[in-house]
């Protein structure tokens, strides 16, 4: 066999890096790649997860664009695996598939009150402010005081987007309905809660520093929340990032910021217990104070605190979704796999099926980490040549005919470039780099030059 016809499902960074890397890898066969995404836009969470006020990270899109613009990877947007194409279709058209479908949903947090009006998953809020086409345009921003549960970067993104002055987002790509929504918010205080302490946060130093220096916002920490044990000290001594973040937080403790009308509070050693409600609406958030156990972990103290808040955002992690006919680990929220080789329920390799990125490894880590994932996965695709499928319709035109015969309005790379150009034009007339389109039918009609 002289050619690998490869399907990659998911055009986020993991899918794009895997496509790029297999094209550049040492191999003795040709490769032809079709990259599918359910969205009419590429780039996954770089476009629909990374916060709009992070232009440096959004800038990674430039590098991903350059890969796709080379012309040796065909993009098929607006094609959903499981609906528009099935595993059988892939077997008929390709030698192998790599699933790189990432994560879009919130992980569960099982505490009383999560169902109350005013209790939200962070992912839903992110999908709103990043203008994901499949999520509602309206977001209820009625709360003056808000709790954000979680001590990772997503919690900081959410807290920052909630507390930031909306006019300071006017230079970003947010559409008008997001700006207007944020403008209507009466918020004065956002409280971020972590179960453990300053030496255990999962932020990154840059994100933390940024969150503590938002224009017009007073960042506040509480001296009683600063405790360290042997485990903490070991983390501080061995990990530069931990050391930097502890130093940043200690500096804020020693040098309280000037009063501002909006405030961002960071609370540590506070484990979520209950979201309190009245008449079905959030009216408070109850935490149990924790203390260090010597190893950097925490135990409950039996001491409780209640904060009057009218909204609670749960930023406790993303979670992958199962795909049709592909074995899924419901505990970890990943496709069952060993180093990217997809396994059946008995733990045997399923020939021709691979996974990479967040759906392979779980929703942790930065964009750059998906590159290492991709290297591992594609090395197995290459090594498994003897196991590849033998498709009946390997011709590159065949998949186009199949999609057309089903009236799937797929978005090609050229089609996407029309959407991209329209977004830039909208931005230019407003002195910005771009303003995002968010309505799927509109995106599709722009993509066809209508
Ligand atoms: C809120 C948030 C903020 C973040 N901020 C940063 C940051 O500042 N810096 C940083 O380095 N990292 C950041 N990350 C992490 C980064 O986004 C991830 O590491 C990375 O996007 C994971 O890549 P992926 O390709 O595995 O998944 P994704 O980016 O999720 O891409 C998956 C793609 O698969 C598509 N897909 C899903 N199901 C199907 C299907 N059935 N059929 C077809 N297509 C499908 C999706 O539409 C999506 O385009 C952030 C993540 C989140 C959630």
Task: Describe it.
The protein has 450 residues and is of the alpha/beta class. It has 16 helices and 20 strands. Strands 3-2-1-4-20-19-18 form a 7-stranded mixed beta sheet, with helices on both faces. A 6-stranded parallel beta sheet has the order 6-14-7-8-10-9. Strands 11-12-13 form a 3-stranded antiparallel beta sheet, with no helix packed on it. A hairpin with a 4-residue loop joins strand 16 and strand 17 (334-335). Helix 6 crosses helix 7 (153-163) and helix 10 crosses helix 11 (240-254). The longest helix has 16 residues, at 413-428. It binds flavin-adenine dinucleotide. Residues 9-15, 36-39, 44-46, 49-50, 54, 57, 80-82, 100-103, 126, 153-154, 157, 318, 323, 357-358, 365-367, 370 line the site of flavin-adenine dinucleotide.
Write the layout of secondary structure elements.
Layout (H helix, E strand, L loop, with lengths): L2 E7 L3 H12 L5 E7 L7 H5 L6 H4 L1 H10 L3 E4 L10 H7 L2 E4 L5 E2 L12 E3 H8 L15 E5 L3 H11 L12 H8 L5 E5 L11 H7 L5 E5 L8 H9 L1 H15 L7 E6 L2 E9 L2 E12 L5 E10 L3 E4 L3 E2 L8 E2 L4 E2 L1 E2 L2 E3 L5 E7 L2 H4 L7 H15 L12 H10 L7 H16 L11 H8 L3
Parallel strand pairs: 1-2, 1-4, 2-3, 4-20, 6-14, 7-8, 7-14, 8-10, 9-10
Antiparallel strand pairs: 5-15, 11-12, 12-13, 16-17, 18-19, 19-20
The structure holds flavin-adenine dinucleotide.
The site of flavin-adenine dinucleotide has 37 residues, from helix 1, helix 2 and helix 7.
């Amino acid at each position: 066999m002289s050619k690998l016809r490869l399907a990659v499902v998911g055009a986020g960074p993991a899918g794009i890096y895997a496509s790029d890397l297999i094209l550049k890898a040492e191999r003795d066969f040709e490769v032809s790649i079709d990259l599918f995404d359910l969205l009419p836009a590429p780039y996954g969470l770089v476009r629909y997860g990374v916060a709009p006020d992070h232009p440096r990270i959004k800038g990674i899109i430039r590098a991903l664009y350059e890969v796709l613009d080379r012309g040796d990877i065909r993009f098929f947007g607006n094609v959903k695996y499981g609906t528009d194409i099935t595993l059988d279709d892939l077997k008929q058209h390709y030698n192998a598939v790599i699933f790189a479908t990432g994560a879009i949903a919130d992980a569960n947090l099982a505490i009383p009150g999560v169902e109350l009006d005013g209790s939200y998953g962070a992912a839903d809020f992110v999908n709103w402010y990043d203008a994901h086409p499949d999520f509602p345009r309206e977001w209820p921003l009625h709360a003056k005081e808000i709790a954000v549960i979680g001590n990772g970067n997503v919690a900081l993104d959410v807290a920052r987007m909630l507390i930031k002055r909306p006019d300071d987002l006017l230079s970003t790509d947010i559409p008008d309905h997001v700006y207007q929504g944020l403008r209507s918010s009466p918020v004065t205080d956002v409280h971020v809660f972590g179960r453990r302490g300053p030496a255990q946060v999962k932020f990154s130093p840059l994100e933390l520093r940024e969150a503590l220096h938002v224009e017009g916002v007073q960042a506040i920490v509480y001296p009683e929340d600063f405790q360290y044990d042997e485990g903490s000290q070991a983390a501080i001594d061995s990990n530069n990032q931990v050391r930097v973040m502890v130093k940043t937080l200690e500096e804020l403790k020693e040098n309280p910021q000037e009063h501002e009308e909006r405030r961002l509070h960071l609370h540590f050693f506070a484990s979520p217990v209950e979201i309190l409600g009245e008449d079905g609406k959030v009216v408070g958030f109850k935490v149990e104070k924790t203390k260090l156990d010597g190893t950097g972990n925490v135990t409950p103290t039996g001491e409780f605190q209640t904060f009057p808040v009218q909204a609670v955002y749960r930023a406790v992690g993303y979670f992958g979704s199962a795909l049709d006919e592909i074995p899924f680990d419901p505990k970890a929220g990943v496709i069952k796999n060993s180093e990217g080789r997809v396994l059946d329920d008995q733990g045997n390799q399923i020939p021709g099926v691979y996974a990479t990125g967040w759906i392979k490894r779980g929703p942790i880590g930065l964009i750059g980490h998906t590159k290492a994932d991709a290297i591992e996965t594609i090395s197995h695709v290459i090594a498994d040549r003897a196991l590849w499928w033998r498709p009946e319709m390997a011709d590159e035109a065949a998949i186009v005919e199949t999609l057309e015969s089903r009236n799937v309005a797929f978005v090609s790379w050229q089609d996407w470039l029309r959407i991209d150009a329209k977004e830039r034009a909208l931005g230019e007339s407003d002195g910005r780099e771009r303003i995002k389109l968010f309505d799927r039918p509109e995106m599709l009609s722009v993509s066809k030059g209508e």
